[in-house]
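Researcher: Here's a chain I'd like modeled. Treat it as a single chain, no partners, no ligands.
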Amino acid sequence: MSKPTQAHLERTLDRNQSLEARQLVLKRMHYYMGAKLMEVGVNPQSPEVLYRWSVKTKENEQICTLSAFWGQSKEELLSGKNPLTGEELINCAKPNASKGIKTVAQLCGYASDIEGFRTALKEAMTETGIEHESLDQLLKEKNS
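Model: Modeled as a single isolated chain. Structure tokens:
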């Protein structure tokens, strides 16, 4: 049996809960992910582990997913061979926007293709009709 090279945790949050209550759940998710990684023999503090958040919004719910990638899965994610598009791209870019455009482009599968990421994100925002301040700021950010 091959060793796992990625792990995912998903939680559904009520958008009507207080911000503090939702943040507590997200903090716990990070803790549980660390425990999950230790179970499979991966150091959760290792720079070899790449974390990515994804958030889908449905009516009064937010579906939050924390993913960890290492080894082959991390290499594939950072290769730029399978970039996210459409709503999946937005769901990844929005919660990771504070990490900067270079990092978000990598997390979304665009490797170092910042302009390709920008173009795809603009198209996804137009297609879905989603506008968000953090995404607008990300698009305006310089490549450096």
